[in-house]
Amino acid sequence: MSTTRTALVIGGGIAGPVVATALRKAGIEARVFEAYPGPSYGIGSGLALAPNGIAALDIIGAGDPVRAIALPVTKMNLAVGDKVLALPGLSDVPPLQLVDRSELHQALHRHAIAAGVPFEYDKRLVDVQEDASGVTARFADGSTATADVLVGADGIRSAVRTLIDPNAPGPDYTGMLGFGAITECDAEMAPDTMTFAFGKRAYYLYWPVGNGRVAWGANLPHKQYLSLTAARAVPNARWLEILRETYREDTPGGELARRTTEEELEVVGALHIMPPVPHWHRGRMVLVGDAVHAPSNSSGQGASLAIESAVQLARCLRDLPAAEAFACYERLRRARVEGIAARAAKINHSKTPGPVGRKMMQLLMPLMAKTVMKPEKSMGPEQRYRIDWDAPADRDLAAA
User: Fold this and answer.
1) How many CB atoms within 10 Å of residue 331?
2) In 3-state terms, what secondary structure has residue 285?
3) Region of 324 on the Ramachandran plot (φ > 0 left; ψ -120 to 50 alpha; else beta)
4) What is the distance between the alpha carbons of residues 198 and 193, in angstroms, rounded to a whole number?
5) Which residues contact 347 (CB under 8 A, 6 or more apart)?
6) CA separation for the pair 393, 316 (Å, rounded)
7) Which residues, other chains included, contact 109 with Cβ-Cβ below 8 Å and sequence gap of 6+?
8) What is the rounded radius of gyration, in angstroms, for the C-alpha atoms of the chain?
């Protein structure tokens, strides 16, 4: 039986509002504390929510608000040079939902507020103290807050992760910077289709959004690590020069880069992947979302996994005392998220194949379609995953 009545959630991005809303649904009073001075709108570019992530949002009633701002993608292509291959998919699952990250933040924030979740801003966590009666968070402005448990949903540079384990690994740089934009493009494109393109010098992806406009994202190889702040300190005009040179020989990559304006370009900065985190929880503290598992963007599952973990954590805290709930949550989640991260890491290595590797990919594409690209094996377990909210969490623990 649960003994948790109150929770502090550190971080108001994606996982934070979801876990707070799910905790409220579980009968636990949750409050969100965000370091930014307001909801973190305008951070990042577009992202894909997989069917499993949308299904987890449906549990807390946020699925339809997110679908309302998303673009469904029913088909996917792989392009290497002038060769385009239709990728096989799963016919019995809903489509991917493409959404702007800032719009997703807003939708989840609004939904959490409507569910009764209070948010406090300008609350940068600096320390935590625990005792037999609860956990107290101390913030940079001198204020404090106390509850039964504290959930670290504070992203890839998590302060809570370091408080749980000062020796915890930080994120690894993939060697690529991320960029995104929605711009006008004359190239003919199939509707509802996302194309993963291996350009001559770099990988990119694109999909039509209607009215002659196309959304695209670039993974630019870059030896020097640049944080979001550092990357955005470089003028957009300079980044566009680099992107136009990088993709100039690609179709439609060259046109997409040339058409993109400084105002349209969204600079994401370094792309990361989290190595396995040894300790997901300690005492009354636990991690969720990118703070504990952040597969590279190649997975297509980062946000969906964060949402899943947020809902599963709330379910475990609903049914079990905190220490048992944290252990149950980790057992239910670790193998799944680390397996997906490992798959994404392999994809990262293929994004800069070089001239010889690129030629080999072109030659092998028909064979890959028949052998390697087996969606039932690679995507089936990922996208069909569903959380049984109504079932006791310890039932799943026994089966894990």
Assistant:
1) 14
2) strand
3) alpha
4) 16
5) 296, 298, 299
6) 5
7) 12, 17, 39, 119
8) 21
Distance between CA 366 and CA 84 in Å, rounded? Answer: 10
How far apart, in whole angstroms, are the C-alpha atoms of residue 239 and residue 245? 10
Query: DSSP label at 17?
Result: H
Q: Which helix (H) or strand (E) holds 11?
A: none
| CA 77/CA 378 separation, integer angstroms | 16
Whether the CB-CB separation of 293 and 338 falls below 8 Å is answered with: yes
CB 146 within 8 A of CB 136: yes
Do the Cβ atoms of 371 and 363 come closer than 8 Å?
A: no
DSSP letter (8 states) at residue 258:
H
Indicate the length of the chain as a whole number. Answer: 400
Strands across the sheet containing 193-198: 83-86, 75-80, 193-198, 203-210, 213-221, 172-184, 266-273
Tokens of 131: 């005792």
> Minimal CA–CA distance to 186: which of 263, 262, 255, 265?
255
Which amino acid makes up residue 248? Answer: R
CA distance 12 to 36: 9
Dihedral, CA of residue 75, residue 45, residue 299 and residue 39, to nearest 10: -120
Residue type, 254: G
**What does each of the 400 residues of the chain score in pLDDT, given as a tens digit?**
778 999 999 999 999 999 999 999 999 999 999 998 887 655 667 788 999 999 999 999 999 999 999 999 988 888 887 788 888 778 788 999 999 888 999 999 999 999 999 999 999 999 999 999 999 999 999 999 999 999 999 999 999 999 999 999 999 998 999 999 999 998 888 888 999 898 989 999 999 998 899 999 999 999 999 998 999 999 999 999 999 999 999 999 999 999 999 999 999 999 988 899 999 999 999 999 999 998 867 677 889 999 999 999 999 999 999 999 999 999 999 999 998 888 777 665 555 555 545 554 554 455 455 444 566 667 788 888 999 999 999 877 555 5
d(CA 85, CA 348): 19
Distance CA 338, CA 276 (A): 7
